[in-house]
Specification:
Strand content: 25-35%
Number of domains: 1
Distance between the termini: 16 Å
Helix content: 10-25%
Structural class: alpha/beta
CATH superfamily: P-loop containing nucleotide triphosphate hydrolases
Number of helices: 3
Number of strands: 7
Largest sheet: 7 strands, mixed
Radius of gyration: 14 Å
Strand order of the largest sheet: 1-7-6-2-5-4-3
């Protein structure tokens, strides 16, 4: 199932994340696709807010992985950008499909570690704070999430 809509601001992009957050369950994997500055971390910050994470969400670009445990569900935020042409045996598989929800930026660089059932979210910068956001699911669980978004955004 696929659904595309326009977010008119950073606030609306974060609202999408906040809306999705309570619908996630342990083991869910969300692939975030888009160029640098497309809003991937902004969306993840919205999810963190919806999960009642107390810490500020920042891009894990230089850390590769940021873990947020103080919330209703652990949130794992992976930025695989720096792993292109690298050995991916870093223990990331412990977080992917683990006890929380895992958001993966630049998922193509760790494709062998990713499960078959994922929610893919593509963000395209349309200028200013406007983003085209496409959600694509490949399972009943994620189809339900996409349907919920269709009704709200």
């Amino acid at each position: 199932m696929k659904y595309t809509f326009i977010s008119s601001s950073k606030t609306k992009t974060q609202e999408l994340g906040t809306f999705l957050a309570p619908r996630f369950r342990a083991g869910d994997v969300v692939l975030l696709k888009g160029d640098l500055g497309a809003g991937k971390t902004t969306l993840t910050a919205g999810v963190a807010k919806g999960l009642h994470v107390e810490d500020d969400v920042i891009s894990p670009t230089f850390n590769i992985l940021k873990c947020y445990f103080k919330g209703t569900l652990p949130l794992y935020h992976i930025d695989a950008y720096r792993l292109e042409h690298q050995n991916i045996e870093l223990g990331l598989d412990e977080y992917i499909e683990g006890d929380g929800v895992c958001f993966v930026e630049w998922p193509q660089y760790i494709a062998p570690l990713l499960p078959d059932e994922v929610l893919s979210i593509t963000l395209i910068n349309k200028g200013g704070d406007v983003r085209e956001i496409t959600l694509e699911s490949n399972s009943e669980h994620f189809d339900s999430l996409v349907n919920d978004v269709k009704g709200a955004f």
